[in-house]
Amino acid sequence: MKRNLYLNVQDKEAALENYLDALGEIQTESEMVSVTESLGRTAAEAVFARWSSPSYNSCAMDGIAVVSSRTKGASEKNPLLLREGEDYLDVDTGDMILPPYDAVIMAEELIETESGDGYEIISAVPPFANVRAVGEDIVAGEMILPSGHEIRAVDISAMLSAGVRTIPVRKKPAVGIIPTGDEMTDIADVPDTGPEDGRIAETNSWMFDGLVRENGGIGKRYDIVPDRPELLEEAVLRAVRECDIVIVNAGSSAGRDDYTVHVLRKLGTVLTHGVSIKPGKPVILGIVKGKPVIGLPGYSVSAYLAFREFVVPVMNRFLLSGGRAEEKIRAKLTKTVMSGLKYEEYVRVKLGLVDGEMIAAPLGRGAGASMSLVKADGFCVIPKNSEGIMAHEEAEIRLLEKPEQIGRTLVVIGSHDIILDVLNDLMMESQSGMRLSSTHMGSMSGLIALKRRETHIAPSHLLCEEDGTYNEAVIREMFPGEKIVLIKGVRRRQGFIVKKGNPLNIRTVADLTPEVRYINRQKGAGTRVLFDYLLKKEGIPKMQITGYEHEAATHMSVAVAVQKDNADVGMGIYSCARTLGLDFVDAASEEYDFVTREEYLDLPVVQEFLRALRSREFLAKLEELGGYTAEEIGEIRKIHNFLS
């Protein structure tokens, strides 16, 4: 079958509008459910009270029931004596108030007589004072909820109080999910050691299933369909019979084995193949037998974004819902984000509040970088026909995280170490509501972010070649006249990560001959500074290293590259080599510290970080990871930066 071509890539808004118009009015169905099971459902019609609440005149508080007209004239100068059985009855909250009694005096306003035969009052009470009259809350026959209302916990209580026991709700749309691809393996069939080479664990269908349920639908997952058009036809026709909406995952792009668009054209109508968003371009909007069938890209981030932009609006049509309002904020980007003119691009960002200003740190932009979705607090949307957004400029962010959580986030930008994840876990476990959000940009970039007040803490391990010390020299140079402190972290083993058994016998940088494939760290990373220092010390030109320009953003990325034979050797920390079962050759013992401003030490998020850093639990985890010592951990050193 010939390769697909995106003949008419459409703008997102136009594609969606045309698609919804083509689908026309959706014939929605309703079903009766118990009110107690209706949370989150959408009322299919208006709900009316069957009885009043309260259904009788009831006492609103503890005290005495009185006849209001008999209390007239009572004052501080002329107290009125009320006798039990003659002038009042003792009542508690919720008791029925029957004629002739029509008011309640609360216990705190009563003056007990010395004889104990009654009470004195010093003010009159009006009729129905402290009495909940019949129907005060709900009157029989009044509307409790309108049609289309999403039912909340408080609504359930109100309906039950009004005698409503069952309610008609919009039937949840059934969404069929068809994963495709010869290379895909059902997650249940993947061994504990991971998928075989050439095979991919199919996980998108589970993400879609969760998204369907989050948005009020019922997911129905089908078996993986191999890349054979006749099998895909059968799967689509079955799903169309059994479901209200159908998703075909993968096979929507322009590859030789991407058959989805051909199958949907054969079975029905294709209105759109390709939209101008990035990631997420390979979207197919089709209709088969009157039902929406949507082809979504295979890469997880593309699939997620395309689901939000196209599947959710279609589901809302079935639920007659306008959907949830999307929260947006303005935030300052920590680095420049370039973009092409042809697409509206969604850049995942981590957010935090530093010096009262919202900061957005861009994450990895790959369409398959699913962890960027896990870590993201929001999306920075770069409009079509824009070349991007410059560093330190403000941009609009669509939130994925709650704003209040962002305000309890410790922003950490700088050098990478897996202990940052451990510290975040300890902060989250403490139930303080605080968390650590780390962006791995290298030691130097972290210090620059601290200089610009775009981070609370900058992890750093920058070597001073002159005296062999770490961090303090560069801090004095970068922050003249500013009050900067160094929170001492760990000493860690840094060296060469190599395959098990060290088959190339790598011992020093002198062993990195042109035949050896090296993987480097990014510019500004402390590990790269150390590697350059070792090369300089041995008189080895950088360009003699095969793969010097092959960069990785984290120590774990270096270790994985060696494990998967994308490189023979890379420089990193011992704990990462140990985690992946690789060998390690010591090159240096370095100091991995945390740089911050003195004024930030009093921030609750920094105090919580210090608590986690100094905790016994953290020290135990360091021992478990291996390759760390913590002689000075948590010590705070003020760096004296004198202006010249």
From TrEMBL:
UniProt entry keywords in alphabetical sequence = Magnesium, Metal-binding, Molybdenum, Molybdenum cofactor biosynthesis, Transferase
Q: What class of enzyme is it?
A: transferase
Pfam families recorded for this chain? MoCF_biosynth, MoeA_C, MoeA_N, PBP_like
Q: Is Metal-binding there in the keyword field?
A: yes
Task: State if Transferase is listed as a keyword.
Answer: yes
Which cofactor is recorded for it? Answer: Mg(2+)
Q: What Enzyme Commission number(s) does the record list for this chain?
A: 2.10.1.1
Output the superkingdom of the source species: Bacteria
What transmembrane ranges does the database entry give?
none
| NCBIfam families found in the cross-reference section | molyb_syn, PRK14498.1
What does the record give as the function of this protein?
May be involved in the biosynthesis of molybdopterin.
PANTHER family given in the database record: MOLYBDOPTERIN BIOSYNTHESIS PROTEIN, MOLYBDOPTERIN MOLYBDENUMTRANSFERASE
- Protein name, entry field: Molybdopterin molybdenumtransferase
Q: Which organism is it from?
A: Ruminococcus turbiniformis
